[in-house]
Amino acid sequence: MTANRQTLGRRAASFLRDWSLPRQLRGEDHRSDAARSTLSERLRPRLEHADHVGVSVCPYCAVGCSVLVYAEDGRITHVEGNPESPINAGTLCPKGATLFSLMSNPDRLTKVKYRAPHSDRWEERPLDWAMERIAQLVKRTRDETFVEALPDGTKVNHTLGIASLGGATLDNEENYLIKKLFGGGLGMVFIENQARVCHANSVPSLAASFGRGAATMPQWDLANSDCILIMGSNMAEAHPIAFRFVMEAKRKGATVMHVDPRFTRTSALADIHAPIRAGTDIAFLGGIIRYILEHDLMFRDYVLPYTNIATIIEGDFKDAAALDGLFSGWNPDKNSYDFDSWQYEGVVVPSALAEHYLDTAESFSELTGRLHERPPPQDPTLEHPNCVYQILKRHYAPYTPEMVERVTGCPQETFLKVAEALTRNCGRERTGAICYAVGWNHHSIGVQMIRAAAIVQALLGNIGRPGGGILALRGHCSIQGSTDIPTLYNMLPSYLPQPNAFKPQARDFDSFLDDETIPTGWWYNFPKYMTSLLRAWYGGAAGPHNGWGYHWLPKIVGDHSQLALTLAMDDRMIRGLFLLGQNVVMGGSNSKLIQRGLGKLDWLVVRDTDMVESATFWQKGHAVRDGEIRPEEIGTEIFVMPAELAGEKEGSFTNTHRLVQWHDKVVDGPGDSRSELWFLYHLGRRLKALYADSTAERDAPIRNLTFDYRTKGPRDDVEAEDVLREINGYTFPGRRQLKNLAEIAADGSTACGSWLYCGCFPEESHNQTRMREADGPDGPGTHRGWAFSWPDNRRVLYNRASADPEGRPWSERKRLVWWDEAKGAWQSHDGIDFEPDKRPDYRPDWSKKPEGMDALRGDEPFIMMPDGRGALFTASGLKDGPLPAHYEPVESPVHNPMYRQQTSPVAKRWRRPGNPLHPVADPRHPHVLTTYRLTEHHCGGTPTRGVPHTAELQPEGFAEIPPELAEELGIRQLDWIVLATARGEIETRAMITRRLRPFRIDGHTVHQIGLPWHFGWEGYATGDIANVLTAVVGDGNTSMHENKALTCALRKGRLTRSLARRPERDGRRGEPWTSS
Amino acid sequence: MDQQLTPYTTEAERTAGVRIEPGKRYGFFTDTTVCIGCKACEVACKEWNQLPAEDMSLTGMSYDNTGALSATTWRHVAFIEQVRPAQDHERDDGVPDRWLMMSDVCKHCANAPCLDACPTGAIFRTEFDTVVVQQDICNGCGYCVPACPFGVVAIDDCDGKAHKCTLCYDRLKGGLEPACAKVCPTDSIRFGELSELDAVARERVEELKAQGVEEAYLYGTPDAPGATGGLGRLNAFFLLVDRPEVYNLPSAPTRPSQRIGAALGAGLVAFAGLAAAAVTLLAGTRNGGGR
């Protein structure tokens, strides 16, 4: 009673004290804080309750934003941007800003969901049961489908029966174990990830031009640009945080230009928007190249010494202007080019690409020997009729402003503005950058689009210099990492080629090395990297006695890329599939064909954080929806396993500019969620146990695979740093960490999982990827103390080119690397992408047949190229020509106005039932269709569509159509419309906007329709799947699909659906999510 | 709490270059010319303030599926497409198309009408010169809702109380920049002391004019459009390049109390008129009836 009275009294007193009225009566202004309440008094930010905060990396796009993850009692309480990051400086895009909701989403998977063959329901199963079942299935399928040798005796040691998709959303360490266990251990060759359908084109085009298939500059360096061309990218929407640096440059006076079929949020912020018809980028860029040459605007002092502009090409070479769209060497019988006439006069030049040998059985080593003997023939006067300069002039002569307008639909005045701005901002004092993304990838001619940009930048002297370069903007958090440490079929880590069974030289290790080793330039080190990789994978079991275990590596026998993989499922070649964070039903071309293929598998393992379309295709897929098949008729055994996100696991991502950033583990993932590292390690241990007693030679790879990583914690999580230590490399058998590339040896004394990453873990206890010391505002701005970027922590690639041939910076304003005569060494705030003490006046002594780097001069900055020079003209490496030429997309509304050759002669077309293509100017499919992303969602969209805060921003699928077309068809805003191709039909909402405009092309009107491809049937923001419309066609070099430019039909209304044949049973219909 | 966690208590110094101290006046400067319409501000606000998502349907209004500020949406990005018809584009006449984007928010008015209207003292002015609805006091009377000339304050259906942007009152107390300003990729939303923001904003207008953007002006700074009708100034102010109405902002907002005289006068005149009419009519009737 007393206590109560006291409490009451206290409450009354506190009321009188706090109540605003007496305070105001006392004279406090009601506009002051006189009215402050108890709650307001005590208010503090909830971050102060956190008992743990870790640094993670946003798991969405490849910009690589650093985030702080706050947790309390093992639960995440908040996530926001890390102010220390030189990339995002605390900011985030709407996707990154909802990481808290993503990670703590109650809809996340927490248990293994199992669907037995022909079942109509999901059941929850214990994790351990699923792991053992999967291990058994893998072994059974592998044993049933393993091939040791082809009928002619060629060893292949592979299985085509199991495939794996995914890796771009995963850690480098996880990618490494996928490739190591699935490829090096089990012999799988169908190993692919999102990089194939995202930026596969960047690798050959940039590598064939400059030596490495990656962005040449860091994102933050855009702030130093005087001119930025964004083309093939909707940067402000798809990479908003990278766009910060564009805005910073613009504030400093840079001209920002956007060339794009649509007027987007990027166009809105650009100084110039040049509209073009989808798929005509080469015509536009070819026009720029012609403009530079015609008006003699190239940076001559740079181009002459640093590129192959003066190099003389074989006399019988003919360009596409001469042969109406084809180059010399076209072989109609083989449907491919012979490359002889493309070579330097008297010298065969291999490409810096891993895949340079594909499609040829000839040995390069015999042909390239002359590289040792003398420098490639050159004419510095540029007058020789077959020097690259003269060839460029002839080849691009037809690309006049009039022709640019005729092909692209862009008014020539606008085109000329872009050309003038680019050429105004080059030379000693000024630099310009080009940013591109999948808009130059999703084409049958995408490799050559990027090549055209490379030519423009080389001519303008914009490579290797501050504010200059080509920035490939990639779409997944570690898509660069999953390309470097490739979960891709045709490469081994760090761009070593996966051996091809049809190449005689690949039959044994010595001839493989001999054939792949380029005599001059950095790739001369090839044997060191290859041997050290085999040492890392097979440890002591590999040695000179068995060719370092080379024959344990599976050999490829053709195109095992994602498109081919999806068809191989449909053909029942593939029996089991892993989907490791890749939602192929959303992201793969011709989704109905893919869904059909998934339904023919024996088993399917889906690892993701949420239910994805690829897991529920048997319930809600198009074939079921359309009544073609009942779920009970689908025999696929399906495991859906909950996965962990960055912040719940530790590891490293490699961002779009090769920056390898470590993310900490802050909390455990919910329930039975596990990392891919955990999954792969424990699956690998189980498989090794299953094969332990085998004596068969075919099982030697999995038996001998080194797989001893430490585990920790109650869940036996794998020590991710152990995997990164192996990726970095160590001495063998001493296991001392390698400090840098120079320590890698060819004699088996070193093991190295991915040579380009050497230096990321240079000491047992020094993880450079976890270093987080950015340069302050007054620092040099290379941020070498923030994480690691390959190679050797260099930030700007080819940065030797930022100095003139004598080693002086081109200008003080654009200073980056310079030669210090007193020290006898190159100096820079960046890592030097050159031999550190090679004098600028060094010249090879050709009488001594110099090898490797000795054959490159002190003023040849492109060290990965056999001649040390940037390639305006690519003699080898690309299958569709040494120079970009405009071809129409495989499906086009017009005949090619430029050449008689309509499409890329080597474009891949998989003609088969279920994948029909539209003819040129097909009246049934008259409109151009282009697919794309929105800021608010990420790719296949399940994460953002499943998070309410991002879902509500773009809550439903729609197609953007120009008002002229809408009026013609009587379509009003938000009406239902049906888009149709020969592959399928989808229904969606009409978004009528002038931001899409019709073009007049060769006298008739071409309408473009825009379709975001995020939407599917899972999550809160739903819609029909755009990829139902797209076709399985691909770039001849990379098998990249062509989803940026195809043709379609449009009508008002909705789809009429056949009633599913599924009988009504116990009311479960429409409740497909009932689990046991 | 771990010692190493403390740096964030001065985080705003790193993210906004501002030391947050009670007694100083803070606000937002939203430069719409660098807004990329990403809506990170909308979601960062919802994530921090734990506000629910709302309607999941397309509006058909460009990329704006939020529609308006509400009790559970405290930042709203407006999209205004100004693209000319296709026939005007056949030749390049140098007139650029525009797609204006603006992140709208509570203006935290210097003389806040909502605060004036609040009968319970729930709405108060904080030590940072921001205007906050105190949830432990608010009784949901709703007087503040019509008082706001910008349509910012709203009553939530669930708890029946008034809600709006708090300018992240809790974060300011902890030395953190408000969530929307911190997250903004292009610094379109800038947080800071008003005196500094005013200077930055004026400089930005001059910079834009020098670049040929003659139409740039400030909305909400003292004596500028938006800061009319007795509002004094708007602590959250904007740089615009078109008329305020284009962004759905009132061109001359006023405090309701400013309108008392006029409203009362109008009411009295109307009353007098009605009375006169009634007298006339009734007199006529009576006259007629008298006959």
UniProtKB/TrEMBL annotation, chain A:
SUPFAM superfamilies: ADC-like, Formate dehydrogenase/DMSO reductase, domains 1-3. It is an enzyme of class 1 (oxidoreductase). It comes from the Bacteria. GO terms for cellular component: cell envelope. Pfam families: Molybdop_Fe4S4, Molybdopterin, Molydop_binding. GO terms for biological process: anaerobic respiration. Residues 51-107 form the 4Fe-4S Mo/W bis-MGD-type domain. It is found in: Cell envelope. Signal peptide: none annotated. Belongs to the prokaryotic molybdopterin-containing oxidoreductase family. NCBIfam families: formate_DH_Act (NF041513). This is Formate dehydrogenase major subunit. It comes from Chelatococcus caeni.
UniProtKB/TrEMBL annotation, chain B:
PROSITE patterns: 4FE4S_FER_1, 4FE4S_FER_2. The chain crosses the membrane at residues 260-283. Residues 26-56, 97-128, 129-158 form the 4Fe-4S ferredoxin-type domain. GO terms for cellular component: cell envelope. It comes from Chelatococcus caeni. It holds the Pfam family Fer4_11. This is Formate dehydrogenase iron-sulfur subunit. The lineage of its organism: Bacteria, Pseudomonadati, Pseudomonadota, Alphaproteobacteria, Hyphomicrobiales. It is found in: Cell envelope. Keywords: 4Fe-4S, Iron, Iron-sulfur, Membrane, Metal-binding, Repeat, Transmembrane, Transmembrane helix. InterPro entries: 4Fe4S_Fe-S-bd (IPR017896), 4Fe4S_Fe_S_CS (IPR017900), FDH_Electron_Transfer_Unit (IPR051555). CDD domains: FDH-O_like. GO terms for molecular function: 4 iron, 4 sulfur cluster binding; metal ion binding.
